[in-house]
Amino acid sequence: MGLTGFEVEVQRPQADGGLSTEDMTLSMGPQHPSTHGVLRFVVRADGEVMKEAIPDIGYLHRSIEKIAEKVGWHGFMPYTDRVDYVAAMPCNQGWAMAAERLAGIEVPRRGEYCRVIATEFNRIQSHLLSVGSMAMDIGAYTPFTHALREREYINDLIEELCGARLTFNYMRIGGVAWDVPPAWREKALAYVRRFEPLIDEFNDLISYNRIYTERLGGVAVVSAQDAIDYNLVGPNLRGSGVQYDVRRDEPYSVYPELEFEIPVGRGEMGAVGDCFDRYIVRIREMKECCKILRQCLQQLPPGPVIAKVARNLKPPAGDCYVRVESARGDMGWYVVSDGSAFPHRCKIRTGSFAAISMIPKLSRNLMIADLIAVIASLDLVAPEIDR
Amino acid sequence: MAPLPAADIHARLKSRFGESIGELIGNRRDNASATVAPAAIVEVCRFLKGEPGLEFDCLSNLSGVDYPKRSLIEVVYNLYSYRQRHLFTLKVGAQRDDPVVPSVASVWSHADWAEREVFDLLGVVFAHHPDLRRILMPEDWPGHPLRKDFVEPEEYHGISTSRESLLKAT
């Protein structure tokens, strides 16, 4: 895959006999441990300082949007897992909500609670992977193992819930596939109790480590205005100080009944909107997830978990734009129905796609090593970019 | 601040741009939309972004939909205002055999990549786009996959795009 419009500029020796320098072109990826999936950057650097980093994406393009047009409304659910396999629950939910909105289906309350519980566990999972791998990218290996250890427990819990550890396929149009198993609620509550203090332990281990904060503080600052202009969403947007969360500001499911805070970047280690702010927002969000989980698990109402939905679903013709708060933020589903058994169009607008489009602007005049921090702090997940 | 009803947003557009704005379609917040004449789209977007009280500071989503029966490709702009919490959708119809729509990359930076994606997958040419080239598919890929009449090539550089069913082989 060639990149057009990218020529190496060679500087000739200067007339005054001074030392000449040549720009160096580096290809980072597509298989680089810190690129979080298969994506590539073409970096033009002068020594250690980047002049430009141009992302080259598409390596993980599986034409999921085209598949939606071929497999029907119910059949597309397992494919949504693959949009963002690190946080598959919100993808399930986005698709289910879009179809429900078009077909006018009401989800039973217990079903909504099951969705929120699954999604919030998934959010913790995803944030753990994000902060853990970020620490590893910066050079601290141990926190990664701690994060993955905790992630395993949640994998086990979710496996009991839906039989899968990564691509869950848990939700259905109209509700969820399975009710919580017997005694699962107590197990989940016990885990939340165990996990919450571990966030502080993680902070002691790495978050306020001097070397770590020096690497992240003040690096790649994104102003609130730029963040909105580039359509950054989720923790990346909140890192820039914009207190916005789809769960609160465009309420859906049972989130209006739940109490939680929305952490934003405060510029503790430099400037508002730097890499550290994006990182610490994720750490604090995990605490909020615990709050939500505790409320949901305690309030779980009785009743069915799924509504009666026609097997051969044909939503009336129309379109809708539905948004859910995924682990990577506001995820938009623009779905068009033509009244047939197959969606006419399904466009999935993801957080990582917008985030990576900002890399050329953010990377200018940064050190090459800082690019790693920027990629990690934006929490790029390659399958979500390419779909 | 409570968001404006879609009808009010539509009325303000209509009074400013008249004939270029179509009827208000959709009765919910998430599907209220109006068509815009292609020639007017950049001005309409600039107005929606800058006008006090509207302030659509975010292009939340930009996508294209192919309607072969109407021989039309519709470019859909889902706009959002973080300041006012408005949500509104604009639709621009382009002729299917030669779809050209002016680029709004000068209004919102997000449009740059979003328009590249629509160009790549549906073949809509965005006039005055700063860097219009394929983004997801390889540069030498034939055709635009999200068009309804797209036929998958049998192979790409000697790599087969299909395989025999494993069930049939046994």
What does this 3D model show about the protein?
The complex is a heterodimer of chains A (387) and B (170). Chain A is α+β, with helices and mostly antiparallel strands and 387 residues long. Chain A has helices spanning 64-71, 77-81, 88-103, 109-138, 142-162, 184-207, 210-216, 224-229, 234-239, 246-249, 275-299, 351-356, 359-363, 368-377, 382-386, and strands spanning 24-28, 40-46, 49-56, 171-172, 175-176, 318-326, 329-337, 343-349. In chain A, the strands form three sheets. Chain A has a three-stranded antiparallel sheet. In chain A, β7 (329-337) and β8 (343-349) form a beta hairpin. The relative contact order of chain A is 0.18. Chain B starts with 5 loop residues before the first helix and ends with a helix. Classes of the chains: A alpha+beta (387), B alpha/beta (170). At the A-B interface, α8, β6, β7 and β8 of A face β3 and α3 of B.
Write the layout of secondary structure elements.
The complex is a heterodimer of chains A (387) and B (170).
Chain A: E1 24-28, E2 40-46, E3 49-56, H1 64-71, H2 77-81, H3 88-103, H4 109-138, H5 142-162, E4 171-172, E5 175-176, H6 184-207, H7 210-216, H8 224-229, H9 234-239, H10 246-249, H11 275-299, E6 318-326, E7 329-337, E8 343-349, H12 351-356, H13 359-363, H14 368-377, H15 382-386
Antiparallel strand pairs in A: 1-2, 2-3, 4-5, 6-7, 7-8
Chain B: H1 6-17, E1 21-25, E2 33-36, H2 41-50, E3 58-67, E4 72-80, E5 87-95, E6 100-102, H3 111-122, E7 125-127, E8 155-156, E9 159-160, H4 166-169
Parallel strand pairs in B: 2-5, 6-7
Antiparallel strand pairs in B: 1-2, 3-4, 4-5, 8-9
Q: Give unreliable regions of chain A as ranges.
A: none
Major sheet: arrangement of strands of chain A: 1-2-3
Radius of gyration of chain A: 22 Å
Q: How many angstroms separate the termini of chain B?
A: 65 Å
Mean pLDDT across all residues of chain B, rounded?
Answer: 88
**Overall number of domains of chain A:** 2
- Any idea what the CATH architecture of the largest domain in chain A is? Orthogonal Bundle
Radius of gyration of chain B over all CA atoms, rounded: 19 Å
The CATH topology of the largest domain in chain A corresponds to Cytochrome-c3 Hydrogenase, chain B
Give the overall shape of chain A: globular
The major sheet of chain A is characterized as:
3 strands, antiparallel
Q: Kindly, what is the distance between the CA atoms of the first and last residues of chain A, rounded to a whole number of angstroms?
A: 18 Å
- The secondary-structure class of chain A comes to alpha+beta
Domain count of chain B: the total is: 1
Name of the top-level CATH class of chain B: Alpha Beta
The tally of beta strands of chain B, per DSSP, is 9
CATH superfamily of the largest domain in chain A: Cytochrome-c3 Hydrogenase, chain B
Q: Largest interface, counted with CB-CB under 8 A?
A: A-B, 40 and 37 residues
For CATH, the homologous superfamily of chain B is named as NADH:ubiquinone oxidoreductase Nqo5 subunit
Mean pLDDT across every amino acid position of chain A:
88
